């Protein structure tokens, strides 16, 4: 389960998606998430899925590697599906004891599950195809207009990127701690969900100690290199929009237009 989390990991490659400007990819990801919440019917989700599938194919990131990232959040998706299925009132399809499954509830549950899956995959593609340093530069560039009102754009971008970058590191530390405790007789596999959750509690103390140690090592390394935040910082390779970035932006705007038009016209007919 620990090794299945792909969020924050970078998958090396030289595809067209990998070489896009990080600012374009960040904005495209944010707008794609917004577009997912505009979709209200199956046709819209088919369009959203088709666009995401095209990006996956072009990026050349293995589909099995991407889908592996859904395993850790399966329980969240299942819980959301069940809650929506039983809590929304409407035309009753199935009734037992105090529970009722309605047509509207089932429809909402399916849509919410699909929306969450597409959202997770779309967000994962951003980190899978963007190097951490490029991601930091992209976030800082997008936040730079807010410097005029005192927003520390560089520091925020650095914190966000470090948080994403250290997800795989902490997962690796967790895996090491679990293996060490299993070698000493700990059991994390048997029993029900509650028992397995309780068995994970002893992992928290060494994990927190390891996390603080890694954070201290990082702080000392940055201090030793005279890191000073955004004060008079320069870059050897500045970010410049290329022709491929403009082409990708136009293609994505066309995709968003399809989502909006589907919502306005086809959604009303249905």
Q: Which class of secondary structure composition applies to the elements?
A: mainly alpha
- N-to-C span: 40 Å
User: Would you identify the regions where 5 or more consecutive residues have pLDDT less than 50?
Assistant: none
Count of helical segments? 10
> Sheet with the most strands?
2 strands, antiparallel
Mean pLDDT: 81
Principal-axes shape call: flat
Query: How are strands sequenced across the largest beta sheet?
Result: 1-2
Q: Helical amount among residues, as a percent range?
A: 55-70%
- C-alpha-based Rg, rounded: 22 Å
| SSE run | HHHHEEHHHHHH
Number of strands: 2
**β content, as a range?**
under 5%
Describe this structure in words.
The chain has 270 residues and is mainly α. 67% of the residues lie in helices and 3% in strands. The chain is built from ten helices and two strands, in the order ααααββαααααα. The protein has helices at residues 22-38, 42-59, 63-68, 74-87, 103-128, 132-143, 153-183, 193-199, 201-224, 243-269, and strands spanning 92-96, 99-102. A two-stranded antiparallel ribbon has the order 1-2. Helix 4 runs antiparallel to helix 5 (103-128) and helix 7 (153-183) crosses helix 9. The longest helix has 31 residues, at 153-183. It is flat and about 65 Å long.
